[in-house]
Amino acid sequence: MIIYSQRAEARPQYILHVMISEEYYYLKAGKASDLTDPKERWLYRVFEIFPGALAWGTLALLALLSWLAPVFIAFFIIAFDLYWFLKTVYLSLPQIRKNNLTIKQYIIYNYGTASNYIIRR
């Protein structure tokens, strides 16, 4: 069921509220303390900690392995940097192409006749 409500502000803004049954209460959880079941709370905290632990573990492992196998880690870091550089270039090329086409469209457009039309009206 979908309910629309209107806030009392200068401009009315409509907010979409979706009614969620009590069976799916965990969909509205914003932090671990919002969950009632201790097992769910523990799992939530594990998933909450996982990205940070993975990042710190990667940095610690690189520091440790650079002491044990410096040549391998040097190649790994160069390959990793090259991967992210190529990924950035690959993802930015369509945007650059789109911007160039937009600039060409505005260069072709005759602003003199357009401004004369606007002034005469």
Q: Looking across the biggest beta sheet, what order are the strands in?
A: 1-2
Describe the oligomeric state of these chains in a short phrase: single chain
- Report the sheet with the most strands, covering strand number, pairing sense and barrel closure: 2 strands, antiparallel
Uncertain stretches of 5 or more adjacent residues:
7-16
Beta content: 5-15%
Structure summary, number of beta strands = 2
Radius of gyration over all CA atoms, rounded = 27 Å
What letter string, H or E per element, gives the SSE order? EEHHH
**Fraction of residues in helix:** 55-70%
**Secondary structure category:** mainly alpha
Q: How would you summarize the topology of this molecule?
A:
Layout: E1 2-6, E2 14-18, H1 38-68, H2 70-108, H3 111-120
Antiparallel strand pairs: 1-2
Please characterize this protein's 3D structure.
The structure is a single chain. The protein contains three helices and two strands. With 121 residues, it is mainly alpha-helical. The protein has a two-stranded antiparallel sheet. Helices cover 66% and strands 8% of the residues. α1 crosses α2. The chain has a domain at 70-121. Mean pLDDT is 79; it is low at 7-16.
Provide a short characterization of the protein structure:
This protein has 121 residues and is mainly alpha-helical. Helix content is 66%, strand content 8%.
Relevant terms:
single chain; 121 residues; mainly alpha; two-stranded antiparallel sheet; 66% helix; flat
